[in-house]
Amino acid sequence: MKTTISQVHDYEGKEVTIGAWLANKRSSGKIAFLQLRDGTGFMQAVVAKNGDEDETFQLAKNMTQESSMYITGTIVEDKRSPLGFEMQVSGIELIHEAVDYPITPKDHGTEFLMDHRHLWLRSKRQHAVMKIRNEIIRSTYQFFNENGYVKIDPPILTGSSAEGTTELFHTKYFDEEAYLSQSGQLYMEAAAMAFGKVFSFGPTFRAEKSKTRRHLIEFWMIEPEMAFVNHEESLQIQEQYVSFIAQSVLSNCKIELNLLERDTTQLEKIQAPFPRISYDDAVGMLKEKGFTDIEWGEDFGAPHETAIAESFDKPVFITNYPKDIKAFYMKPDPNRSDVVLCADLIAPEGYGEIIGGSQRIDDLELMKEQYEAHGLTGPAYKWYLELRQYGSVPHSGFGLGLERTVAWLSGVDHVRETIPFPRLLNRLHP
């Protein structure tokens, strides 16, 4: 019977065959212990020597790291194993012998590992992080599908900037200027006017020359947009969504979290509702914490976000930022024109902002004023203005950065480990 490591619990006491690679091994006299991986998980296989001419034992003893094989044996319980089972081997068919595999069990530097990212992905740690990433993606689709959202795919090549920034990748679109998308939000607003509640999930690009542990050049965003939803309702949806994916990871990635030595008691706390503080209160809190230079009207950096998060054991919303430091499309607070109806969600444990969201301007005349103030002209923005001209409604949305969320939930230090092939300021390969 052919199966996978993730399914061996269904075959206790039975003989099975698994296609696998040799991740590591050790031998002791007449026993060889093979650490197998097959893409679904990791498992130990035990080969006992049976006489001097035992070809299976000799093959196991001499097999090199990352050689591939079909391995056959009986599945038995092993309570010491994270998997709970191991294989008692009866036969091995070598498929390919790997020679001089470059990533050995010894320690390697980060740059070396990044140069060999295509191979580093095979390691237990990277496997665990990618499985957690996959669970976040899976539970994201589950959450939005179960709550009546339609997935819409915005374009990656665009004729305009969603945020009004200059940190864009330019390209020629035949005879026109085009950009790699930095957000699908503007297009998702159009989709929300057609389908009510929508979400996108796709790559975005920022030409930001940053080398911090929180930044990537190419990263993935989940961007819901909702018609007839105000700012307060959007905050409730955001905390419900983040709680849902956190608890899904906690429930379905126990082996991976344990391997990464993640403190799961921190994840158990991630349950809605989340605390909220205003931007005004955040500035006051920072001054009390020793950031005496911060002034009202300045945006927060990573040290500021970390300091604020230290006061909470859940993600915290910072609401109502100054209008002048936020995007042109955010709706002003009707009670206070110098701030907008927006919020950033700051993850605990120093992982920074994972969500940015707002209620959008739905008034045509106010949006025209914003266009004039920001110099938004031409066909690249005309269609977005028309969303306020034909059946405008109150609407809100947000964007969650996948890689930062993976880093937070898995407990890894740097986002470069949270995407299969990271694009960094100095790295386009592999």
Give the tags.
alpha+beta; elongated; 13 helices; BirA Bifunctional Protein, domain 2; 2 domains; 430 residues; five-stranded mixed barrel; 27% strand; single chain; OB fold (Dihydrolipoamide Acetyltransferase, E2P); eight-stranded mixed β-sheet
Low-confidence stretches: none
Average pLDDT, all residues: 94
Q: Number of helix segments?
A: 13
Q: Kindly state the number of beta strands.
A: 18
Indicate the percent of residues in helices. 25-40%
> What is the CATH first-level class name of the largest domain?
Alpha Beta
Radius of gyration: 26 Å
Could you tell me the strand content as a percent range?
Answer: 25-35%
Strand line-up in the sheet with most strands: 6-10-11-18-17-16-13-12
Shape summary? elongated
* The CATH architecture of the largest domain: 2-Layer Sandwich
What count of domains describes the coordinates? 2
Termini distance? Answer: 37 Å
CATH superfamily of the largest domain: Bira Bifunctional Protein, Domain 2
CATH topology-level name of the largest domain: BirA Bifunctional Protein, domain 2
Which class best fits the helix and strand makeup? alpha+beta
Note the main sheet.
8 strands, mixed
Organism: Virgibacillus byunsanensis
EC number: 6.1.1.22
Pfam family, one: tRNA_anti-codon
Subcellular location: Cytoplasm
Could you please describe the fold and organization of this structure?
The protein has 430 residues and is of the alpha+beta class. It folds into two domains: 5-96, Nucleic acid-binding proteins (OB fold (Dihydrolipoamide Acetyltransferase, E2P), Beta Barrel); 117-417, 2-Layer Sandwich (BirA Bifunctional Protein, domain 2), CATH 3.30.930. Helix content is 30%, strand content 27%. The protein has helices spanning 55-62, 110-115, 117-120, 124-146, 185-195, 231-252, 254-259, 264-268, 279-288, 302-309, 364-374, 379-386, 402-410; strands spanning 15-28, 31-37, 42-48, 68-77, 85-96, 150-151, 157-158, 170-173, 176-180, 197-205, 218-227, 276-278, 316-319, 332-333, 336-340, 342-347, 352-359, 395-401. It has an eight-stranded mixed sheet. The radius of gyration is 26 Å and the shape is elongated. The protein starts with 14 loop residues before the first strand and ends in a 20-residue tail after the last helix. The model has no long low-confidence stretch (mean pLDDT 94).
